[in-house]
Every structure is written in structure tokens, then in C-alpha cells.
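re: ur msg from earlier - yeah i can do the alpha-D-ribofuranose complex, just paste it... oh wait u already did. ok heres what im feeding in:
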Amino acid sequence: MSDVDVVVFGSINEDVTVHLARMPEAGETVGGRTLQTGCGGKGANQAVAAARLGARTAMVGSVGTDPAGRRQLDALHDAGVDTTGVRLVGAATGTALALVDDDGENRIVVVPGANELAPTNGDLLRDAAVLICQLEVPVPAVAAVAAAASGFFALNAAPAMAVPSALLARCDLLVMNETERDALGAIAPSGYTAVTLGAAGALLLRDGREIARAAAPRVEVVDTIGAGDAFVAALAIALARGWDPRTALEAACLVGADAVQHPGARPPLHPLEHYRPSSD
Ligand code: RIB
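and the outut:
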């Protein structure tokens, strides 16, 4: 194994988040309460979650040479993520515009910018013990990286879209929410498929058959942004380490529940072992 455990290939965004009482209807204008600029991108969030869960983690992706790119690189570095695989490119750093209502629910629009130019070559990606991807970088790039990967490969099929069957076939783990599952209309043919169910927890399939279901603990929801990313990182690491699938799913749900209790896309987390149910 190289000196990192987990490599995340994917998006790095600056999140511009408005907190408001309720979401506007189509054609409606509503007042916002606060506006915050912070760190995001499904890829970068998953990298930071993996690092906070205790894995030695590297990020591969792209940011612009603009101040937002510098801020996002610094934040990854400060979170303990190896950023040698992050390329500076001549495009604006990816930006996400997010609305978060009083129930903690969110709506997000992403302008990919530099994420369209994420670099797909390099030993880091090929040799990763655990490689995690999402779909905020071009699908052909994800497919190329997955085809070359030699380790455990996890795909978070978010945002919702169709992907080539060869990419699905390479998945040791495919993670989706219910919207994404409907858009994809498929499961991982030979690996695990996890479907997150929001407050109802998550389920895990193998060979099209449900093998585990875990409830989400009842907690006070502050912000759901980034909770799915923390879940993905936790489940990928736990399964790659050989944890029993039910134990891994329960631990990932606990991580997700921890994440929703904190504002922003990069919640503080404990090492993964902290979330391991004691029965395993
Ligand atoms: O998964 C949450 C992330 O989705 C946000 O941080 C935002 O950047 C979007 O990419």
C-alpha cells in the first residue's frame, strides 16, 4: 500500500449557503436569514470525512487559480488531506449555491467550473487501496479512473444521472439516495449497493438482494449538507477494511447522524472505530 489509504477523485467547490425559514415555491421570492461562504464539493467533503474518520487520505481534482481555489486547497490541507493530486487550472473554482431550511433540508445548484478539468492520470489513482468517486466531475473521467483502479472502488452516484454499465460493473460499492437510484435504474452487478433513505436510515444490497438495513438514530437535524458524503466515506472505508456489512452500514448511519447535527458540509467526526456498534 502507498502512504495513503484512501484517494478521493472528484469535485472541490466553494459553497455559498443561504439559511432560510422555508424553501421558495416556483416564482416566489422569500427572505433569507444568513449567507455563508464555505467549503464543499462532494469529492472534497468525502476526502475530509475520510481524513477525520482516521484514514490517510489524498484528494485528486481541480481548482481554479482564483482566491476560492486557494481557500479550498488550504482547507483540504488544514483537514489533513494530501493535496499533491489537486491541479490548478485556468477556470473558475467550482461553486455550489445551497439553500438550507429550518428543517435542515437542502436544495443545491452546482456550477462545475474547474471540476470539468479534473486530472485522470497518475499513480495515486491507480494504486489507491480505496478509491472513492462521485459524479460532479465528468462521467468519462470517472469511468477512466475506475477502469484503471487496482483497489477497492466506491462510487457515489450523485448527482443523479445515468452511468455506463462498465462503470457500474467495476463498483465494489455503489451508494445512492432514492432519487439517484430512480435516475440510475440499476445496482452494482457484483459489489455492494447502498441506498440512503434519509431519516429512515439506509439499506445494503448484494446480488440484488437486501442483506442489511440500518435505522438512523433520532437526532436534532441542523444541516443535512455533507451528511451523505460522510456516510459514503465511512461505509467505503469500513467495507474495504473487511467489516461485516451490517456493522459497516450501522456505523455509516451513525456517522451520517453525527454529521447532520453540525452546520456546513464538513462536520467534525470521530475516528471510524468510535461508530462501530459494540456487537461486532
Ligand atoms: O454533498 C454536498 C455537496 O454537494 C455540497 O458541499 C456542494 O458543494 C455540492 O457539491
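cool cool. The longest helix spans residues 245-259. ping me if u need the other ligands too
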